[in-house]
Amino acid sequence: MSLYYTRHDAMTQATTTFSPIETAADGSTAGPIAIPPGVTMIKSITASAVVDGAFAINTGPIFVLRLTGTGALPDGNQDLVLGSVHNSQGGGTVTSTQERILLPLTIPVNIAVKPGADLALQGAYYGADPGAGQMSVEIEFA
Amino acid sequence: MAKYYVTVGDSMGQATTTFASVQTLPDGGTLSSIKVPPDMKKISVLGSCLSSDVISVIDVGNNFTVQLSGTGLVDGIQEFNIGALFSGEVGASVGMSWDAQPANYRNVDVAVKPGEIVVSCAYDGTDPGTPFVAVTLGFE
Fold first, then answer.
1. The domain containing residue A45 runs over which residues?
2. Per mean pLDDT, which range of A28-32, A36-40, A60-64, B84-88 is the poorest?
3. What would the pLDDT profile of B86-95 be if each residue is shown by its tens digit?
4. Within an 8 Å CB–CB cutoff, is residue A90 touching chain B?
5. Looking at the DSSP assignment, which residues form a beta bridge with residue B8?
6. Domain B4-86+102-139 -> CATH class
7. 3-state SS, residue B36
8. I need a labelling partner for B121 at 20 to 30 A (CA). Which of A49, A95, A141, B85 fits?
């Protein structure tokens, strides 16, 4: 039986800078995930990323997830690329409306964890600042 | 299933059909080569993601190839197709388009040994401006 936890957060920091992903779906600051007793591994990671606000034109960040936490990961920090978004407007000015529906990415993994420790999620992005990145991550423990 | 993941990325500002290093960590640090983690025998997962950062040149299309090299590879240099970017425009008008793609994770089987692995990337076709590539290697 697997156990599932989610966190999300705004990615308003500068490029190539990690920021905590620690907000619960109900809006509370849940912080790191307390690794449940009896589990030994992260079995999968499911994530999505968007820009929540005005999307800076001609930017295309690539989002990255970091797993970290003191004593949580016997094999140390793990960094995984998640996906990209791009807003292209050439060199002109235009009035336009765009919409995109995204399915999440699920990555099967086998990352050892230590029950009782706190697993911290952090997000970063490569490329120019898009304005208001937003990441959501689900962790499956087994 | 991979148990150890390392990610590097970089802007591909070089000319066409020229390999350039992919060596920037997500926190902005530089990792010019990846040390094979202790007791790891192979790279079993290759994650990759492409994007156009800043203005993409119109009417160009490029396929991207990631190259692994270095002392940590049992069988020497390995190269992988990681996909393509293209951008087009009809007439002299301007418009706006969005795109969003999850990273692509594929199973690979690359034997490794204690040593270093260098990640590089090249593209074909006309220089697209400033494409960006990020690569995750999963070891087990």
1. 3-87+102-141
2. B84-88
3. 877 766 656 6
4. yes
5. B135
6. mainly beta
7. coil
8. A49
Nearest CA in chain A to B94: A92
3-class secondary-structure state, position A119: strand
Q: Which of B3, B100, B135 sits opposite A111 (nearest CB)?
A: B3
Q: B-chain residues within 8 Å CB-CB of A121?
A: none
Judged by CB atoms closer than 8 Å, whether chains meet at B98 and A55 is answered as yes
Contact A127 B138 (CB under 8 A): no
Report how many domains make up chain A: 1
Whole-structure pTM value: 0.88
**Is there a domain that residue A94 lies in?**
no
Assess if residue A136 is contained within a domain: yes
The token duo for B84 is 């393509």
B115: left (phi over 0), alpha (psi -120 to 50) or beta: left
- Tens digit of pLDDT for each residue in A69-121? 999 999 999 999 999 998 887 666 666 777 778 889 999 999 999 999 999 99
Q: What is the CATH number of the domain that holds A137?
A: 2.60.120
From B3, B98, B103, residue closest to A81, measured CB to CB: B103
Rounded CA-CA distance B57/A90 in Å is 8
Look-up of token digits 């016997």: A74
